[in-house]
Amino acid sequence: MNDGTATLPWLVVRQDDNGNRYRVGRYATRAEAQGIADSLDARGHKQLYWVERIGRNATSAD
């Protein structure tokens, strides 16, 4: 696998007021991704931010 999913399996996603979803970034650990999502969410905008795992083990905790 050479597409980066093995090394950066955690994704931060943003959903805007109209329901459009955008990839914010990819991260090596869930903690790193969650920290980014939390800091963006703390800005007080109406967008939603969450963390998803991509790749084969999408249900893994970290």
Description of the molecule:
There is one protein chain. This protein is an alpha+beta fold. The chain has one domain (10-53). The chain is built from 1 helix and 3 strands. It has one helix spanning 30-41, and strands at residues 10-15, 21-27, 48-53. The chain has a 3-stranded antiparallel sheet, covered by helices on one side. A hairpin with a 5-residue loop joins strand 1 (10-15) and strand 2. It is flat, with a radius of gyration of 12 Å. The two termini are 19 Å apart. The model has no long low-confidence stretch (mean pLDDT 85).
User: Could you say which structural class the secondary elements and strand pairing correspond to?
Assistant: alpha+beta
**Rounded radius of gyration (Å):** 12 Å
The mean pLDDT is: 85
Summed up, the helix count is: 1
The SSE order reads EEHE
Q: What amount of the residues lies in strands? A: 25-35%
Query: What is the spatial order of strands in the main beta sheet?
Result: 2-1-3
Biggest pleated-sheet summary? 3 strands, antiparallel
Shape: flat
Task: Domain count, please report it.
Answer: 1
Helix content: 10-25%
Low-confidence stretches: none
Number of DSSP E strands: 3
The termini sit apart by 19 Å
